[in-house]
């Protein structure tokens, strides 16, 4: 028996209303249905047919989820909404989750099946931990799947996203467990000792992460030429490098603490400018984040401190910055964040902001009243407040109100 031919995707033009208009019918795909367009002249209708034929996406019949995923990832990279490294990670995660459906036709990915996939994800132990994924992890997978299907809807492969109606379960934790300052000091001391005595390069990479507040990928992508100004400054995710960083705000050039400078400079000896500062793996690629993760765990055990992850080291840096009274936008910029809201939500320890606000308030009050030892101020409190600029006075009142609320 011969296979029935698929109906044509564009029909017309049809003359209607006594020839006063012409209609063409476009079938985008099986799931998205059809659409009628109307034109006053035949010439316009024929031009629309040619343009529609050029822009219509391929039919979803016979198109597998794997092909759709590959097209989606390629489009993200081409449009510049995602760098190739991150795009490949997203593809890997979705393939790992949706593996049983990759070779199936798109029509089999229904809303019921999508809901079953998410329920299975939430309940199935992960091979690495032996435990079901954390709330943050399973929500991230769901977010990736929803983004994929929204793209597919815009391209005409689905009428509605199969994942659109799925609501994430659980409440994610904010931030990660952090080392206390004394613990961080022991961590750094241990790492320096391992580098000085055993040339443990990865131990020095871990110290760089905690002292500069860098992401794991940022540290491992640093090249020799990024160590600048005699070892006093480090270019992170420089705009002229292949590695572009996680976000547009990742590019920065923090000062390097004096205790770290000679050790980093030691790594540059007899190295080409474009060589990776912390070396390459056995495969000839930059060392992986997983290797830095295992190094941090090893250092924590050696230092006798709670085991944390590399990302937690950024939190120590952020908390220390806020505790020191540094301005919020400066702390955010140093971490490569576009907003301090991200820093406060995921990195700064609870209570650090309260202390910093109180300290800032005291500083503002004292700075306005104190002139110099030889010239004592005779201004009253009312005169002092009246002398402040309006924006400073407004901010001062906000801080006072926040402090009163926090004190109960």
Specify Rg, calculated over alpha carbons: 29 Å
CATH fold assignment of the largest domain: hpI Integrase, Chain A
- Put simply, the count of helices is 16
Total number of distinct structural domains: 4
CATH superfamily of the largest domain: Intergrase catalytic core
Classify the beta-strand content into a percent band: 5-15%
Q: Count every beta strand, where a strand is a DSSP E run of 2 or more residues.
A: 5
What is the level-2 CATH architecture name of the largest domain?
Answer: Orthogonal Bundle
The strand line-up of the biggest sheet is 1-2-3
What structural class results from the helix and strand content?
mainly alpha
Descriptive notes:
The protein is mostly helical. It has 4 domains: 10-55; 65-155; 181-340, Intergrase catalytic core (hpI Integrase, Chain A, Orthogonal Bundle), CATH 1.10.443.10; 352-371 and 378-407. The protein is built from 16 helices and 5 strands. The protein has helices at residues 42-55, 65-79, 84-97, 111-123, 135-155, 181-198, 201-212, 216-220, 261-267, 289-303, 310-323, 328-335, 340-346, 352-369, 381-387, 390-407, and strands at 10-16, 21-29, 33-39, 227-228, 233-234. Strand 1 and strand 2 form a beta hairpin. Helix 6 (181-198) packs across helix 10 and helix 7 crosses helix 10. The longest helix is centred in the middle third of the chain and has 21 residues, at 135-155. It is elongated, with a radius of gyration of 29 Å. The relative contact order is 0.07.
